[in-house]
Structures are given as structure tokens and as C-alpha cells.
Amino acid sequence: MGIRSLTRTEAELRAALIAVERYDVDVDLTALPDGPEVRSVSTVAFTCREPGAATFVDCAARVLSATLNGVEVGPGEDGRIQLPGLAAHNVLRVESVQADTTTGEGVHRATDPGDGEVYVWMSFEPDEARFVWACFDQPDLKAPHAFTVTAPAAWTVTSNSGDADVEELGAARRWTFPDTPPLSTYNTVINAGPFHEVRREVDGHSLGLYARRSLAEVLERDADEMFTLTRQGLGFYAEAFAMPFPQRRYDQVFVPEFGGAMENYGCVTWSDAFLRRAAPTPAEHGLLARVLLHEMAHMWFGNIVTMRWWDDLWLNEAFAEFACHWAAERATRHTDAWASHLMIGKISAYLSDQGPASHPIHQPIHDVAQAASIFDNITYPKGASVLQQLKTYVGEEHFRTGMAAYFARHAWGNTTLQDLIDSLSEASGRDLDTWRTAWLATAGTDRFTLERAGDTLTLVADGSPRPQVLAVGAYGENGDALERRALVRVEVTETRTPVTGLPSADVLLINDDDLTFATTRPDPATRDALFRTAARLPTAISRGVAAATVWDMLTTGEATAAEAGRSLTALLVAETSDAVIEPYLNLAANIAELWAPTAERTALSAAVAAACLRLADDPGRRQVALRGLARTATTRDDLDRLRELAGADVDLHWRALVRDAELGGDVTSESELLLARDPDPDAWTRALTVRAALPDAATKAEVWQQLAVDRAVPVNAVGLVAAAFWRPGQNALLAPYAERYLEAIPKLHQGGMLLAMGYTRHLFPLHAIDPAYIERARQASQEAVPVVRTTLLERSDEVSRMLRARG
């Protein structure tokens, strides 16, 4: 039997039986520079409410010894050590070793290809601490953790509580960290390596940034921005939640071969892909801000107050995703954060919520393996949008009051959704039970249209709508632009809702200001006008609402790729907000590359390329425009112009080489020269991306081996290489790899949740397949673990819609 996944019933029984007093965890990393092993001694003090009863502790590492109250137990099986005959007070000591630090869960050893230095990071969500040391690995058994870490003398070690006492041991050093506050096991962390460190004292907090030495220059470049965002975020959340972050030290550690970021209390771990080797674009600055604020929001929502079980994972993640946009808009320079959310996250959530992977936001979670499958578009962007609607529904002042009461009442404990609903109901005086059932227990997306009858306007829902507040904007012609003449908020409780107080208008925009999670449709008489006038609306958010409708109509087969492509390309040229220009560019390029029929692809690509060349005349937008040109160049003249305008920008030259390779250019020598002069320690992945795009059978075989079989590509670069591999017009070369993807499905989960999601999504074929293949892939996924099955179902639905649009 393999490693068992903890069930909800088991967790409830264990939490009813025991209470954890503290963890003392001694970790030895001294073998890592030359070998794979992490050794741990976990000492757990806990009480038992029924002396004489039995339970188990989780440990999926190799157990060397285990004693309970001085008596040997174990060694255990299925990732569990049985603990019989419990006393009222117990001390468990487990010595273990984890040697799978390359492809295993919980802990990862990475070697910098630039200088050969070794770094190690740990990441435990949802239940991967058990792969490194023995623990009761469930969120509602919180306890203080005291970490002692022995590491090579040249290394720096970071953990949750910071400010360690460091003892010199010759070739090693021992780092003894103060006790953490009561934390769930998944919120703890140890990172180590020869880090470059930047520190700053800000508003009573000691802020730290860490990265591998080879990226020191990039970290120093971005440090001021990250310290500013950290200060702004800590200030905003302290005020919004009426609770300052309670620890003086707050560290952020950028590590190689990591996916995304993880909200470990007081010590956030990031993928160092966020340290952009090229100067970041406005969209990349915005993403950095949102991720930083998302992980910071978890300090309160997830760490200080933690969900009792994984059925409220959605609330944990959705709240952080909501809060990061709220904070970005109110406290930072990223005032168009909600427009970015709409054009990046929300349109993806609309797609997912109308497909076979849709599910209620809140749903029963049988075991932790199932929990790993709902880190998805419903949990994150839809959940965030629903919380934004909840703030609108109860009013922001009441929302803040309710949140402050929630944190004051439940600090350092565990809660359920009902606890939050109760706090917000008390603060607002609104009965939220109907709201909760409609929004959180019911899958699917509401859709609204406006019905005109003389001077009467009626908002009409497609079916029974959820209770919600949304706005309708009235716009009139003002020269070449449209200006808003009125905005009316409407509270919806029925299928038909009168809309009053709007003057006559040339354009009426449903869900103006994007206050709710619902798709909209123009009436037949104004359908074509929507596509023509979207670019003339006056604000980033109003244009975004119109663009989201255009995109949704493309994905549901109600608009052609040509219609949607023309509309979004016009938006791209007219847009004034730097926050969304890059998202529009990506959508327009995606339409040409992935959604358009073969006969229309070149013309749509050329239109986007022409728009990019116009945008490149603006020095502030040249970098973004040239990135778009690198995706859509259709002629040798385009590529020559791209290289000319790229100047010394190494990133743009790599992008030009990928497009040149796809179009059949001889890029080998230029790629070798660029690799030699690129200072990025991970530049070899850029060279591999160039090779992935080549229309050559032998090269495709070599890249697939590195990417999918050997898994030699860092997780943060898998999407880049895979996108270059699955190119249009290469069907004969790609067909064998569609079959190999099916063969790989049973192993896609290896390496933990983030790798499973990344490989399942990015390796999924985009070309050389048909609807029958989609069905075969879905059938093949039925025996896969839940995270693979769900990710594949979502991706296959999106690709099947692309196939329909191409047809």
C-alpha cells in the first residue's frame, strides 16, 4: 500500500482525542552539499483526553527510530506510525531521514547551474511536512514549533520566527530559532543555502529579502520596490483587520526550482522566477505586488486564523486573492489591480465555471488528496470575485468591522466558514444564509442581459440569479470617445429586475465597475456595436468588462476568432492603463495562435504584429510591444525589425529566436552566441525553448525527453518550454507526443501538488489532436490522482473549445 491520505473522519477523531502542546524539531542539513539526505528528529509533546486510547502520527520519511514515552514504537507503514496505549501526557520522539530531495515532496535540493551552489527549501501545503519529519499533519492541531537546524558553515538558514542564535561548529553552524506562535504544520518552513541577504528596518519591522548569490544583482535592483510594497501591505492589513502583524521579523526568500509562492508564517518562500532577469514590465510589476500582498494576507487569513479542515481551503485562498487586489488598489501604486484581475484571473474562472471541472466554491473534502485538486480557478479568482461581491453586498464599512471582530475572536485558533459568516452578519445586520447557499454551495455562473421596452429597462437573468449587487453604466458619445453619464447600482433577487434612473445612452454596460461574478450579453441589436465600441469606453475597468464579454462569447462559440481578435486588438491600441496592455496582448496573440482557423491565423497574427509595431513607437511601451511582436511576427521583415528595436535586451533576442525557430530559421549559431553572453544562470532553459520550437523531429524528441521524461526543466520554466514545443503548423511532428502525453498521465502527480498541476496543464497537447483525443485523455485521467484528474479535465475543456473555434 502507498502513502495514505488523511481522511476528514480520521482528522476529526484525532483532533477530538489529542491536543498538541509543542514540537521541537532538530534538522540536519550537513549532508546536502554532496548528497541528498535531510535528517530530522521530531519531538512532540501532546495530551490525550482518553488515556489508554490509540492514534497515529504522520511520517512519510524513512523512520530510523521512534519512541513513545520512552517505549519503542513503529517503524510504521503507509506514512503512519501507530501510537498505542496513550498516556494523559505524552512525548513522542521520531528520528527520520528523507533522501528523495530531488523529486520528492516537502523538501527540495536545487543546484544553481551558474555556480554549482546548493540550496534547499521546504514547502508543506497541504500535508507534506510529514515527508520531512513526524507530525500530526492536519490544520486544526496547531502548536508552537521550535526549530534547531545544523547546516554547512557557509549557509544561511531562515525559518518562521527568525532571529536565531547561531553556534559555530567548525565546518557547520547550528541555528536555534525561538518558538513560533501556535501554527499548523503546513505553515512552517526551513530554507537554507549560501543566500545573498538584504535587510531593512521599516515601521518597527525587520524586513529581509534572500536569493541565491548568482541573482544578487537582480535582488538588489528590486529590493526598494519589494520593501515599499511590504511596508504598504503590512500597514494596510494592520488597519483593515484592526490587528498589526504580531512579529517584528518578516522575511521573503526567493529559491530556485520552486513553483509560485508559499505563505509560511513570517517567512514567505517564492520562486526566484519572480526576480525577472530582464527589466520587469508593468504587468510583471503588478504581478509581483499582487503575489506579495496575497502571501502577506495569509499571515492573518491562514496562519493567525486557520481553517479547521480543507473544505474551507477555498476561503483561505480566495480571501488572500481578494485581499491582495483590495490592498493593491488602496495602498500601492497599482490602482488598476482589479482590472488586471478581470483580464487575467476572472476570465479564466468564467471559463472553468462553465465547463466540466466546475464545482461549488465550498464543497465537502473527503481527504487531503482531494483538497490538492481544488487549487484552481474556482477557488482563487472566482472565490476572490465572490468575496469582492460580498464586500459590496454588505458594504465596506460593515465588512471591515466584521473582519476585525473575526480576527480578534479567533486569533491563533481554527475556524469554519460559518464563523466568518456569523461575524459579517453581526456587523452588517444582514442575514447571509441565503447568500451563502447561493454563492458558495451552488456551481455555475449567472448571466445577465438588458431588455428595452420603450423607456423601460429590465435586467434579465438567465435562470434564477444569486442575490447580488451590480451596477449598470450609461455612456454617451463625446467625439471619438464614450463618457459615462450615469451609474446605477441594482440589487438583484429575482429573474427580472427593473433598472431606473438611467438617462438615454448610446451604450449601456452591465456589471460596470465589475462588482459581481457574472457574465453578460448584449441584446441582438447591440451585439456588433459592443465589439466595435469596447475600445472607446473611458476606464480600464469599463473596457475590461466589455473585453471579458467578448472573450466569453469566443469561448462559448457565440463569436468568431476574427471578431474577438479585431475587438481585442483595437482595445490593445486604445488602452491607457499599463496594467492591462500586456494581458490584452496575450489574449490577442492567443486568439491568433490557438483559437483561429488555420486559414485566418496569419492575418490575425499580422494584425496583432502591426498593433505591436505601433505601440513600440511609445518608449514606455516598447518592451511590452516587442514581446507581443515576438509572438506574432509573420515575416522576415517583422523579425528584422524586432531585432533592431530590441537593442541590447537579451530577453527580447531570446523571444525573437523562438519565433525565428518556429518559422524555420537557422538559429543554432545565434542561440549559442546568446547563451554565451546571457548572465542569467538559468539561460540554458531559454536555449532549450528555442530548440523546442524548431520544426525538426530529432530536436522534438530531445526536448520531450528533457521536459517530460527526465523532468530536467525547472518547474517555473516548464510552461515556457512546453508552449514553444506545441506550435501550430507542426502537426505531423507533434502527433506522437500527443500519444506520449496519454502514456504519462499515471505519473504526472509525482513530485507533489505544484508539479502535478504544472505538468498536467502545460504538457497537454494544443495541436495534432481532435475531439476524440480529448475524450481519450479524459478517460485516461479517471484512474489518476485527484489533482491530475481535475487539472486535465479543466485544460481539456479549454482545448476542446479552441478546436471548435478553429473548426
Describe the structure.
This protein is α+β, with helices and mostly antiparallel strands and 807 residues long. Among the domains are: 1-192, Sandwich (Immunoglobulin-like), CATH 2.60.40; 306-440, Neutral Protease, domain 2; 446-511. The strands form seven sheets. The protein has an eight-stranded mixed beta sheet with strand order 5-4-7-2-1-10-13-12. Strands 15-16-17-19-18 form a five-stranded mixed beta sheet, covered by helices on one side. Strands 8-9-14-11 form a four-stranded antiparallel beta sheet, with no helix packed on it. A hairpin with a 3-residue loop joins strand 12 and strand 13. Helix 4 (313-331) packs across helix 7 (378-394) and helix 5 runs parallel beside helix 12 (540-555). The chain is globular and about 80 Å long. The mean pLDDT is 96.
Low-confidence stretches: none
Mean pLDDT: 96
Q: Residue share in helices?
A: 40-55%
Report the sheet with the most strands, covering strand number, pairing sense and barrel closure: 8 strands, mixed
Which fold name fills CATH's third level, the topology of the domain at 1-192?
A: Immunoglobulin-like
Second CATH tier, the architecture of the domain at 1-192: Sandwich
Gyration radius, rounded: 27 Å
Q: For this structure, what is the CATH class of the domain at 1-192?
A: Mainly Beta
Q: Globular, elongated, flat, extended or rod-shaped: what is the shape?
A: globular
Instruction: Give the structural class.
Output: alpha+beta
For the secondary structure, the number of strands is 28
Sequence of strands across the biggest β-sheet: 5-4-7-2-1-10-13-12
- Name of the CATH homologous superfamily of the domain at 1-192: tricorn interacting facor f3 domain
- Number of separate helices: 26
Ends: how far apart? Answer: 46 Å
Q: Strand share of the residues?
A: 15-25%
